[in-house]
Design brief:
Length: 468
């Protein structure tokens, strides 16, 4: 299966291939975008997605998406995938993130216990056009700028800077060896020095604060926030609908059977780990499990948290088991080579990521609805850092989005033909300007799509919970 994945990515490097691709897809053509005459209703697209999700959680998803155009965009990867399918392409494939909006970048722990910055959500990953990730990222920069109330003349330089960072990054990686590209990463401690030229002293402190706080986000912190002691044993709290222990979702008479089932499902997960990780995981004892609502776009998919303890009932570990369904890119790029979508996510992340969670793995198991579901598993919190874009300053947004552009380039350079992409992009700003035009046009469309969802909620066409 791994060989098939690499074959889809067309290994080999050729600058000439990139220059020739300009004939079929001129760089300026990437700026031309308008909705197709037969464009699907965005609410209909979301409704189709909702059909496979937990019904009682879907209103939470709509409630979060309707808050603003930016939160709508975060949940509308399927809507944009359909729009991107008709856009020009160079024909050069990478392991695409599939949902590379800027809120899906952040900090996470490397195995050497350094905080690393980069893409951190690969639910939609699939071999695909590198341009799609760049366009989704750039449009999110434009939409975030609007969310902050920045006028167009101040948003455009920020979008341009993020795309320029991607272009310069790819071209720099094209000059590096394979191993250098593989080992390259951006430590969070380097963020300000590399990208924070416009930040003053106070701005540097504010920009660095989320990454400093991330080091306190561990399983111990998760236990403090999510659990309580019942008869001397740690148990997940009940905070419905956001956190609901398994014991409240099943018939009490069958709880013993369900716990045995969970252990069986974990055996399938363990099989996806390397031998040393299996040894480490065997040091822990399973204690409890709860359904947890996460994110915006993921709300309604089956997401669980699993509690383990080490020696003497201490040394806690909290894992997240998140459902993986077909990528939103698959209707336009073809089905994944992996039968298990959890494996698709993990394999794509391993190929793209600068650092990996030691417990990253996958499994398939029967859900409470009696159907089989695919999952990937990782630590719930392991120095995970995210930035609140709604409170970010203009200079902070400029620094942060430049880091996103560079990190996306690094991800693509690992899996794609970086020589071809770099040659296609060129040394001038033609591509940057085209993508900035696209970002503006697509942000306008996103505003309309958000309005359409708001109207659907007001009309009772879809139910939304606004207070969660």
């Amino acid at each position: 299966m791994t060989t098939e994945l690499y074959a889809a990515l067309q290994p080999g490097e050729s600058a000439e291939r990139g220059r020739e691709a300009r004939d079929g897809a001129p760089r300026s053509a990437h700026g031309d975008w308008a909705p197709a005459t037969n464009r699907p209703d965005p609410v209909a697209v979301l409704t189709i997605q909702a059909a496979s999700r937990v019904p009682e959680l879907v209103p939470i998803r709509y409630g979060r998406m309707v808050v603003s155009p930016f939160t709508f965009y975060r949940g509308a990867a399927a809507v944009m995938a359909a729009d991107l399918a008709s856009t020009p392409g160079s024909g050069i494939t990478v392991q695409a993130c599939g949902d590379a909006h800027i809120s899906n970048f952040g900090g996470f722990a490397a195995q050497d216990r350094r905080l690393v910055f980069g893409p951190n959500d690969f639910d939609e990953t699939l071999p695909g056009p590198w341009e799609w990730d760049v366009k989704r990222m750039a449009a999110s920069v434009e939409i975030a700028g609007r969310d902050l109330g920045l006028p167009a003349r101040r948003r455009r330089p920020i979008v341009l800077a993020s795309v320029r960072e991607y272009r310069n990054g790819i071209r720099a990686f094209a000059e590096e060896s394979h191993l250098d590209v593989w080992y390259d990463r951006l430590n969070a401690s380097e963020l300000v020095d590399h990208f924070g030229g416009r930040l003053g002293k106070r701005g540097r402190i504010l920009f660095s604060r989320p990454f400093a706080k991330a080091r306190r986000k561990t399983s111990l912190r998760a236990v403090e926030k999510l659990t309580e002691r019942v008869d001397g044993e740690l148990r997940f709290r009940s905070v419905p609908p956001l956190l609901v222990p398994l014991r409240e979702l099943v018939d009490p008479a069958g709880q013993r059977r369900d716990i045995d089932y969970v252990r069986g499902a974990l055996d399938a997960y363990v099989a996806s780990l390397d031998e040393d990780r299996r040894y480490l995981f065997a040091s822990y004892r399973f204690v409890d499990m709860a359904r947890k609502v996460v994110g915006v776009g993921s709300v309604g998919t089956r997401a669980w948290v699993l509690l383990f303890v080490g020696r003497d009932g201490r040394d806690p570990l909290v894992l997240q088991m998140k459902e993986a369904v077909a990528s939103v890119l698959e209707p336009y790029l073809g089905a994944s080579k992996f039968a298990n979508h959890g494996e698709r996510v993990v394999r794509g992340q391993r190929l793209s990521h600068a650092a990996l969670d030691v417990f990253l793995g996958w499994q398939r198991s029967e859900g409470l609805d009696g159907n089989e579901h695919d999952f990937y598993i990782r630590q719930l919190w392991d120095w995970k850092a995210s930035v609140d874009l709604s409170t970010m300053s203009e200079s902070g947004l400029h620094a942060y989005t430049r880091a996103c552009g560079w990190s996306l380039a690094r991800s693509h350079a690992r899996s794609g033909d970086r020589l071809a992409i770099g040659a296609y992009l060129g040394s001038g700003p033609k591509f940057d300007r085209a993508i900035a035009r696209f970002a503006t046009a697509y942000a306008d469309q996103n505003d309309l799509d958000h309005e359409r969802l708001a109207e659907a909620v007001s009309a009772g066409e879809v139910d939304a919970e606004h207070d969660v």
